[in-house]
Amino acid sequence: MANRNNNKIEEYLDFYKVGDKINFRIKSKNDITNVLENESEKEAYLLAISALNDEFINKLKHLSLLSNKPTKSNINLGLNKLLDIESKRTQQGFYALWYFLSKTSEKKIQSKSKSANKNIVKLFKLMKEVNSKATFKAEVKKFWKTYA
Question: What is the pTM of this model?
Answer without folding.
Answer: 0.84
